[in-house]
């Protein structure tokens, strides 16, 4: 390394300029050798001397002009809207566009860029970029492919799943076995949700009833927590972000029977409270514990909750009184409703998962679900709709199985049943593109699955077929509900008529007369039974209740209300085996043949997911 020192002084301080010239050599000092000094030295023999035959080399470095390189990425979101403008709100976007278009800088910029873009616009007009080069080739039908799924990866230490919808574009494939960030709450987390407007912010519900939110840019510790005395009294099983201008509003639900609204800028107290008391009296002791929560951004005033008692409650936040906020209830499960989600294509229909079945409901039919799966041998723990196909949904079970249902393809059994692991599966989440599924097990491992293209590709006329299926099943349930109401009204009228009849004066009977009358009634009953048995032996067809519906020989069983196609035109109620009707059979309902003594629908596993025509 060269050592350089720079002197700084004025030119006048250097003195007179030096003039150099050549001259011959001259001796200034001549020191003669001293013979006495030779006694201090000895001769060294032998002498080692190194010799280098190659020429001396010197190291030099040469480099051209250096340019520093750095990697940059560009990400474009729809419109590049500011945070206070919701891209989903049409009025806000139109108002913001008009404001920008009136700006002088915007007009000048457009005029300057117009000349640069003119060439590209003319080029696009001259070339058809949408031209089909392979129109004559036959298109491959996706429906020919069998449903399938394969495991992509297995992660550990996870109990809840939530896909990050919008991110900065970073890749997580470099360290698939190590989390990017570990959140450290004060109490075990039960639920967690990303903020749809800012992917760095998350909100979660804790087991002790607190609500906490994190900013991933500030580390794994919670930025702020709610007060224990002002929050939930039980674990928070659901928390969802609301669509607001600020993007800071959310609401939570717990098994204490309360739904609380929060603003993360001020978590000291909830902004609003609703008690899930279906009697509409607002008594917390009578409230039903909430275990699942559902909110559709396209319906900002409505939300639904699933309770521990198997009841689904539909609510309207903007109602005037707390009693009016509870709009409707749907009862159908024998246990807690673990999953609740609206169909992304038909928000009027929603999916519930509880006990041993998964059910599909319609808001127009409150008495019963319109479709349901058969009863399984193990509990169903979670479920969700496909984000691409309106007729496909997924369920997980306690035996570690993932079931894929396509009710346009098969109704009685799942289209695909995959054994993911030996441990119970408790959580399920589907990515927006519908191809990747995350399944969380009891031990905290997550299995990432990729489904086949058939399960994540919209089929031809699938929306129309699904719409027809939902409408047909809803209409069928409405007819059954009307019939049940009519039967109950007749029974109530009979009871009221009997009560209004004048009561005869009771005559006090003697014990001997009372005993004689009871004995006579007993023997009369025995004789009638003996006569009935004799008639049954002589005529085996006697005693059967037949419903003749005529061509095309379609019968409806009163005991389980499952239709069947019979070789004749008679259908005996004692028959045990039935063949469910095809969902596309062009037959009428023919429900007027039901007698007033028809019992309610059975949940026979052999007839589950029955589709009436």
Describe this structure as you would to a colleague.
The protein is of the alpha+beta class. It has a domain at 145-169 and 180-461: YVTN repeat-like/Quinoprotein amine dehydrogenase (Methylamine Dehydrogenase, Chain H), CATH 2.130.10.10. The chain is 17% helix and 23% strand. The strands form seven sheets. A four-stranded antiparallel β-sheet has the order 1-24-23-22, with no helix packed on it. The protein has a four-stranded antiparallel β-sheet with strand order 2-3-4-5, with no helix packed on it. It has a four-stranded antiparallel β-sheet with strand order 6-7-8-9, with no helix packed on it. It is elongated, with a radius of gyration of 42 Å. The termini are far apart. The model is unreliable at 138-142, 163-174 and 542-613 (pLDDT under 50).
Number of beta strands: 26
Helicity, as a percent range: 10-25%
What is the CATH architecture annotation of the domain at 145-169 and 180-461?
Answer: 7 Propeller
Here the CATH topology of the domain at 145-169 and 180-461 equals Methylamine Dehydrogenase, Chain H
The biggest beta sheet is recorded as: 4 strands, antiparallel
Strand content: 15-25%
Class inferred from helices and paired strands: alpha+beta
What is the 3D shape?
elongated
- Average pLDDT value? 78
Find the CATH superfamily of the domain at 145-169 and 180-461: YVTN repeat-like/Quinoprotein amine dehydrogenase
CATH class of the domain at 145-169 and 180-461: Mainly Beta
Uncertain parts = 138-142, 163-174, 542-613
Physical arrangement of strands within the biggest beta sheet: 1-24-23-22
Supply Rg: 42 Å
Total DSSP helices: 5
User: Span between N and C termini?
Assistant: 93 Å
